[in-house]
Automatic annotation (TrEMBL):
Uppermost EC category: hydrolase
Family in the record: Belongs to the adenosylhomocysteinase family.
Protein name per its UniProtKB record: Adenosylhomocysteinase
Positions with a binding annotation for substrate: T57, D148, E210, K240, D244
Entry EC number(s): 3.13.2.1
Transmembrane parts of this sequence: none
Keywords: Cytoplasm, Hydrolase, NAD, One-carbon metabolism
Amino acid sequence: PTSPFEFKVADLSLAEAGRHQLRLAENEMPGLMSLRAEFGESKPLTGARIAGSLHMTVQTAVLIETLTALGAEVRWASCNIFSTQDEAAAAIVVGSGTPEAPAGVPVFAWKGESLEEYWECADRIFDWSAEAEAAGADWIGPNMILDDGGDATLLVHKGREFELAGAVPEDAEGDSHEWRIILATLRESLATSSDRWTRVAAEIMGVTEETTTGVHRLYELARDGELQFAAINVNDSVTKSKFDNKYGIRHSLPDGLNRATDTLIGGKVAFVCGYGDVGKGAAEALRGQGARVIVSEIDPINALQAAMDGYQVTTLASVVGEVDILISGTGNKDVITVDDLLGLKHLAIVANVGHFDNEIDMAGLETLEGAERIEIKPQVHEWRLPTGRSILVLSEGRLMNLGNATGHPSFVMSNSFANQVLAQIELYAHGENYERQVYVLPKLLDEKVARLHLDALGVKLTVLTPEQAAYIGVPVEGPYKVDHYRY
Ligand code: NAI
């Protein structure tokens, strides 16, 4: 068994710098701070053991300390190899102790993990054997997951599936490099225990999922009758996807571009693949900087929206030779192909803000004959192509707003994470109300999250009169819209 304080971060001496940033972030996260005030005494998460897999940033540090203030125990990993802010990770491990005697939350995350290390960290958040031993308890894992992109949930489900089958198949579906690493991780686990993941799955009451891509995976598991515990889709709270995905990207995409390349955006041709919530934020940010923005879509409704918003909408292949900045934000795979990359202008910038790196055919680029990769600086690579031209690829095709910058700013993440905290409370404290299905939070809680952020912006809300409320058929105190209202 490991010690309860086992952890792995880059450098504990960064803790003080991290703590300063946390202090400033708390001031920008009124949603989380008011939940601490509201639930700090009743501690509805007492007894909750949360395995967290979400970008280990300063904002996530404030989330973690909110969960612990509400009574939870937590183990944490990042959900991306480049997204950790090492000072935030250090501050969380040190907690109220000192770097010599840390006494905070076990974090397994540093900026620049290898894929092998990434999956090892994901495994570590499920090993609660030391805590169980200390508590004299017979559980071995967490009873809650807080996930972003679904990797933690995937590990439990695949682990259990292979244990029931008695072995990890040699040729399980998917043959990517990363998939082989996941299989190796599970093979190692199966060699030491034949029922670890089955037990872990049985102990888990629920998962709260942060992003579009992870939510997509959850609905698939539920559809196939394979979901092992209840799930709350945090992404589709209005105060999450219509704010974080859109306004968050509007801030952090140009931040990533500037920190990576400092190329002037104004006057350039920028191409955005996908006009969902993320694509809308990306296109608006680039246009705001003076770029001429072109959009691609596969959905006629989103395509029409983009056109009405004033963007040219066309296929990438038809204009690729004009593009200076190419951004992908679809949640789909193979959106940018090697042919597209070969057709780009000299030193065009290629970057992805969708959850996984397979939006860009990075595997194809890496095996392309005659292509050469030169590191300009970490997470910025020039690829010399056989055409004689080069392109600049950010964060190796992974989320560049987290790899090249520090992700979304605190205020918008306070909305997302207030939903996360409410969802954790809901599943943990009222688990009996939930089946093995995917749920969204009730609209009243969504409205509550928005309310918690109004004062900080000086917003004065108009209050319905009882007569007006009766006239439009809603309670004075909300909820104000039917569930299918689109905002
Ligand atoms: P969404 O579903 O609202 O939008 C995606 C859009 O892409 C859809 O309109 C879809 O029709 C379109 N699309 C799909 N395949 C396409 C293709 N081949 N070419 C062009 N368009 C295509 O999803 P949302 O919320 O915008 O999320 C997109 C991705 O960004 C997801 O992977 C999500 O997890 C991720 N995300 C990343 C964040 C970040 O910080 N970088 C923040 C939030 C979400």
